[in-house]
Automatic annotation (TrEMBL):
InterPro entries: DeoR_HTH, WH-like_DNA-bd_sf, WH_DNA-bd_sf. Keywords: Transcription, Transcription regulation. It comes from the Bacteria. Residues 83-130 form the HTH deoR-type domain. The keyword Transcription applies. This is HTH deoR-type domain-containing protein. Gene3D superfamilies: Winged helix-like DNA-binding domain superfamily/Winged helix DNA-binding domain. GO terms for molecular function: DNA-binding transcription factor activity.
Length: 141
């Protein structure tokens, strides 16, 4: 089913689009340092997220989107061991996860090792431990 768009591509939009393509071609031809290219890519992603949010009617400000973008991009660069990645995925899939729930999923892994993994995830700011005794649980940040 083909749904017609609810917007019109004006000559100004066409002109801006061609300018973007020209600049993209130029940047691809330049031998810039990887750090500079990475910063430009991040800025472009941020601008794209901001304008997409505005198109969708979202009322977030530039600063709010920038803050969230920085927070998420910092989490992308964290490299975790496979078991910690799996624990993090389990916590993200469920709202609140108890230690017993995690322990049942990793029945061959000692409890001490799982506690260490959870402690490391909390230190990296990826999960939050709520509570301090047996009733405590973990949430994704």
């Amino acid at each position: 089913m083909n749904i017609p768009p609810e917007y019109e591509i004006t000559p100004e939009i066409k002109k801006l689009n061609s300018l973007i393509e020209e600049l993209r071609a130029f940047l691809n031809s330049v031998n810039a340092k990887p750090e500079i290219i990475n910063k430009l890519n991040q800025l472009n992603k941020l601008k794209s997220a901001f304008y997409s949010a505005k198109i969708d009617g979202n009322t977030l400000t530039w600063e709010q989107i920038k803050e969230e973008f920085i927070k998420r991009s910092q989490n992308e660069h964290i490299i975790l061991p496979p078991r910690q990645e799996e624990i993090l995925a389990i916590i993200k899939d469920h709202m609140n996860v108890s230690f017993d729930f995690i322990q049942r999923r990793f029945y061959k892994v000692p409890a001490r090792t799982l506690r260490y993994d959870l402690k490391k995830l909390a230190e990296k700011g990826l999960v939050i431990k709520v509570g301090i005794t047996r009733g405590s649980f973990y949430r994704a940040k």
